Amino acid sequence: MSILGRLFYKSRKFYDDDFDWSSYTADSYHRRLKGDVESNFRTVSGEGDLSLEVETGKVNVRGDALHPNVQLILEVIGQLQPTSVHEVGCGGGDHVAHASVLFPDIQVTGGDRGATQLDLAIARHPQLLGKIGIQDITMPFSDQWPRADLVYSQAVIMHIHTAVSHFVALSNMVRQANKYVLLVENVQCHNFVQDLIALEEGGHLAWGKAHLYQVEGSTGARGILVSREPLDLPELVSDAQMRAGEAPSVRRLRRSDEDSGRALTGFVREWRK
Ligand SMILES: C[S@@+](CC[C@H](N)C(=O)[O-])C[C@H]1O[C@@H](n2cnc3c(N)ncnc32)[C@H](O)[C@@H]1O
Questions:
Q1: Which of 100, 120, 167, 217 has the fewest CB atoms found within 10 Å of its own CB?
Q2: Ranges for the Methyltransferase type domain (predicted)?
Q3: How many of the other CB atoms lie within 10 Å of CB of 113?
């Protein structure tokens, strides 16, 4: 390689997450929360604002609607009835706070790599103090992370693109969960189904086998449910199923393929065929 080529090779940004997480609250999140989310949806719930219709699994909301993704998360919790839930990348804490209002008997925790995100969460929901903490889901697994029956994320793993970090995150979420992982993510940003299957086949999932399902909330949001045991739900075998009906983003899908292409899974003895 030429000297110029070598210099360029060393200084280039190879791949990166979508945001600089150290300044993310001020750069983007706080403004988005105030401007786009709070003006359209209920972000804080008090006692009696949310209720679960046990027969249908639907969450009823008094007053302003929940964002469809949040509606889905709460409905999945209501239908699966875990004893504990943990949110990875809980940000401003709204979803964990809704969950603890609606399901006071379920133990709720949240983790985020951003200290300023957690500061914001406590400012918005002081009752979360002691329930949330710093967690980088792309680090090697930590026994200090709270275990939970259900571990979920919303709009977190979709933004992780550094090296093979999103594979690490998915594998860690499965290990942190006793029974279920719920991904409420933009399904064009990663080949979530393909990547989970590759992790399973390569022996990277603590459960050994994982069952993949598509779940849908009563207001239209869709998510990927990973379950340790088989469930009576529509099975997912491809990302195309999750992407059905969405206008494809060529840029995102190309990046997803590049991300998936970085994974070397398992232990391959026959590498030359
Ligand atoms: C788009 S925000 C979503 C926040 C929240 N889930 C919500 O729906 O409002 C992405 C969040 O993921 C967090 N995050 C990014 N990388 C992470 C990592 N490696 N481990 C844990 N959290 C992470 C960010 O700090 C940020 O709070």
A1: 120
A2: 87-169
A3: 18
